[in-house]
Each structure stands twice: as structure tokens, then as C-alpha cells.
Amino acid sequence: MSGSRSQHVRRARAAAAVLALLAAGCSTGEDLPASPVTSSTRPPDTATPTSAPPAPRPSSVTIALAGDIHFEGALADRLRDPATALAPAAVALEAADVAIVNLETSVGSGGRPEPGKRFTFSAGPAAFAALAAAGIDVASMANNHALDHGRARLPSTLRAARSAAEADPPLAVIGLGRDLDEAFRPAVTDVDGTLVATVAATVADRDPTADRTGQWAATADLGGTADALDPAHLLAAVQDADRAADVVVAYLHWGVQGERCPSTDQRSLAGRLVAAGADVVVGTHAHELQGDGRLGRGYVAYGLGNFAWYSPGPTGVLTLTVEPPRVPTGRARVVRSAWWPAAIGADGLATRVRGEAAARFAADREALRACAGLTR
């Protein structure tokens, strides 16, 4: 990750705090800044003729999106060296202004594996360092494995997430928190003055081996994940983010495991999110790549599949080039989409495919776009 991208995320903490207040619908009683992010500027009466003019905002920003990551099986030992844990896929993530993934594991210490649950995933805080070292800016933990070791581990997870946000390079962890508002708090990345807000939520209501509908959902007075089985809070969070940021990304854990075409519920919620102000809607949970393309004024990628996983298979990084709105009441617009086509090997890592394999990947993307009801 470049130094400038690290600075973007550090500067964005103030924006995240402001958006949290907006989402909570409350006031601290203190004067808030007029804009989500403040910067150090010289008052007009002390400006000098040699003062540098403010840097122009970028005409577009790039957002790299990848799917499920954990550190199980062959991947577990890679956390001994977080700096190289996700190589060689880092090249596709580092190149973007903002890179976002789903971290599908509990993180920290304490608690115990959930009884009766077939798959329980666990990693130490080095998992956060590994994501940041790979060029990832934002990690969603709004999923059905974030609390595989129960709520007893959550304080440890949140401490590690705070440390990750203060590290260099930093990582913003979203989708879970000490209460409902913190769980839905967006990460906001400042790309030279363009604010990209990422909101995360899970609607993965049923574990493959046990019915745990909403079991770990955060509430007004209980920590947990950002649960959107009732999407009202999610839609409100997206609306608030849209008012305060230039580009809004909604990252969902949704769909039916093993399915390559999105469910009716996915398609319905995607439309509602775009209408609420999401410019980009992406998701995971099916453990399969699903279709991506345009839906009205937004861009949707229903399933990003696995990315660093113990099961081999196709994967990739989707990079979107987004133009911020030209006027305050306008909408951001995805002007280009490009896949870094890859496959997960026996080592659990994504490696780029070329030649005939890349051609097959592209043909598969076209077929999946069609069954998703999306357009180019």
C-alpha cells in the first residue's frame, strides 16, 4: 500500500465518526465540522502569496473488490509472516485507491467454538495485519463466521480492530461493533478529497449446519454483527452515507451457498440499496462467483466468491473506476469495470490466470451477468 493511501485512511477517521453520528440520529452538543473531513488550512487573512492552491479532486477513483478470506488449512501458517501472507494477489489490490474484502473468521482470543456448528474459523490479530499488508483498506466482518467463538471473544476482536485502524498501513474493520450503531458505522476513505463510504451488513440468516437466525445480531445495547434480515437499518445507513460521502459501497453477506445465480431476495435488496443511494453493491456468502453489471444507476456484483480459502476454484479481483458526482445532488457513476482473473490453488492463494483460462473466465462472467439480470 502506498504512503498516500495510508494517509487517506488516517484522514478518514473523522469522517467515520461524523457518519456514525448521522446514522445514530444524535448530536454530541459540540460543533461539528461543516464537511465530513477537515484539513489544516491557513486562515485567509494570514495566507501568503506563495501558499499552494488546494490539490484538485481526482476525476475518478478506483475501487478493488474481492471476496471471502480466512486463514484456515494451508493458509494458517501464512500468518507467521503477515507481510507476505496474501501474495501474489496483493498486486491487484494495491493498485486501487480503495480495496475492500470480506474477512470470514473470528479474530482474537477467548471464547470457545460454537457448539453444534460444523465449521468454526479462528485467527489471531495478525489476520488484520496481513490484510493491510496486501493493500486492503476495508474489511467487512458482517458475516456468519465473525462470532464463531461467541460473544465472549468480541471485546478481543474490537480491541484488535482498533489497533489495526491505528497501524501503518491502517485497516478499517466494519460490520460488527459494541452496539447496533457501531456495527453499521461506515468506513470512509478520503481519496484526495473524494469520500468513499463502505457500509457492511449480513443477511446470511442460516448456517449450513445449524439454524441461527439473527443469533449474533448487534442491538441497541448488545455487541454483534450488522444484521440486515430486516433491512431498515441498513437502508438508513446507506441513505446517511449518501448524504455525507461522494461514493457509497454496500458490501453484503447474502445469497444461497453453492448457487451461481442470485436469489430473488438478493435481487430485490440490491434494487432497494441502489434506490437508497448505494453506487456499488457487492456481496459474498455463496462461495461462488455470481454475475456483475449495471442495475439502474448502480453497479452490482452479487457474488465475489472465495479469495483466500482452503478450497481451490475460480476467483478474481473486480476493479471499478468510479466518477464522483459533478454536482452536490448528483450520483457517482461507474465508468469502467475490469476483472483480475484468478484461481485459488492448493495453497489457498489466488494466482492470476492467463491465456485460455482467462478467456474461459471472461466467457463465464458474461453468462453469469445474464442470469443475474444485469447489463454492461
Automatic annotation (TrEMBL):
List, alphabetically, the Pfam families matched: PGA_cap (PF09587)
Question: In which domain of life is the source organism classified?
Answer: Bacteria
**In this protein, which residues make up the domain named Capsule synthesis protein CapA?**
62-311
- Record-linked Gene3D superfamilies: 3.60.21.10
Task: Report the CDD domains cross-referenced here.
Answer: MPP_CapA (cd07381)
InterPro entries, sorted = Capsule_synth_CapA (IPR019079), CW_Biosynth-Accessory (IPR052169), Metallo-depent_PP-like (IPR029052)
Q: Which UniProt keywords apply?
A: Signal
Region spans: Disordered? 30-58
Matching SUPFAM superfamilies: Metallo-dependent phosphatases
Report the leader peptide range.
1-29
Record field: compositional bias (Low complexity): 38-50
The family classification in the record reads: Belongs to the CapA family.
What is the name attached to this protein's record?
Poly-gamma-glutamate biosynthesis protein
Q: Which organism is it from?
A: Nocardioides alpinus
